[in-house]
Input
Amino acid sequence: MKRYYIAYGSNLNIRQMRIRCPHARVIGTAVIHDYELLFKGSRTGAYLTIEPKEGSEVPVAVWEVTESDEAALDRYEGYPAFYYKKEMELDIRGIRTGKIRRRKCFVYIMHEERKIGVPSLSYVSTCLQGYISFGFDEQYLSEAQIKAVEVAGHEE
Output
């Protein structure tokens, strides 16, 4: 059974996703309204997540994934200990047709108790490549980075 997966971070990187999830294919892009992009994490590093914030938005790509792709994503995302899954309905703009279709999708969200942290440059670079591939405004990533530096810097 195929499902629709919402990517907003390193899994926007098409080359990386082809390796991790060989059967996945991009079906379109969307925007998650009233959520913001944040870098949060653990001792191993800070990674992107999304959290509710009225008036904010996050650009995303939507992938069609197989069960084996989803199992690979579960392992990569540290599900269920590090990230949990949430179902969302999104209006997806088709990659080929440009048509808008509403679909039920799933997204990984980091457990909220994780602290804001500063990401590695290599992780940011991987995410940035995805942003460029999909034509997303890089400002979303920049703002998340600035917030991470400001918040994490004050906690030390």
About this structure: Residues 3-155 form a domain with the Hypothetical upf0131 protein ytfp fold (CATH 3.10.490.10). The chain has a mean pLDDT of 96.
